[in-house]
Structure formats: structure tokens, C-alpha cells
Amino acid sequence: MASTFFTWVRSPAAREYFFSTHFWGPVANFGLPLAAISDLGRDEEVISGTMTATLTCYSLVFTRFAWRVQPRNYLLFACHTTNAIVQSIQGGRFVNYWYYGGREKKYGLHGSEPTSSVTQALQEPGKADTK
Asked: Which residue windows does the record flag with biased composition (Polar residues) (predicted)?
């Protein structure tokens, strides 16, 4: 199998493929999933829900395109599939943080409890510390 691959690499068909947009387009497009993967370690506060949803839909549409186009572009398919998966994970992190209590858990907020001494001072004016 390896000899078949190396024979193909030396062929004119391989040179035609490596110097075409069928190769360099997906390679350049892999910046999107790589950026999304690097963002997985960042704080949920900076995730844009609108952009994440847009990139997820974009990647799903172009995943189908890469599969349906003839000849199939497997590199583009892998790129957009990876991006759709990672953007979906980012979307889940966004929803969990903003809508399912992730933010409250992170900052130790519990319902109507005061969040700082300033809030406490405003709620209980007679018990405020005056230094």
C-alpha cells in the first residue's frame, strides 16, 4: 500500500492535485478549526453565541457540499466536519455558561444572594463598613 502511495505522489496526477485549489483551499481553511480548538481553553465569557452559531451552520453546509461535489473533496470534508464539531462544543459551552448556571457557578452567585460588599451596603445601609 505504501508503494502505491509513493508511486502516486511521483505521478503527474499528484502534482496536479497539490497545485490545485482542491488541496490549498482546504489547507488554508483549516485555520478555522485550529482557531476553534485553541479557543476551547479560553474563558466562556468571550464566546460569541452569534458567531459560533454562524460558523456551525457554515461548516455544516460546506461539509455537505464537500461530500456532494464531484470529485469528492475529502480534505475539505474533514476540515468542515472538524470545524462543525468544535463549534458545536463551543456552542454548548456558551449555552451552559449563559443559560444553565455556569456563570453563577463560576462566580459563586446563588439566586438573590448579594455578590459584593457594595451590594450588601446598598441592601443594608445600617450595617455597611465605614473605614
From this structure: 113-122
Q: What is the pLDDT of residues 70-111, one digit of tens each?
A: 888 898 899 999 999 999 999 999 999 888 888 888 888 775
| Interior/surface letters 23-62, b for 16+ CB within 10 angstroms, e for the rest | beebeebbebbeebeebeeeeeeebeeeebeebbeebbeb
Query: Alpha-carbon distance 105 to 98, whole Å?
Result: 11
Q: What is the pTM of this model?
A: 0.69
Distance CA 47, CA 13 (A): 43
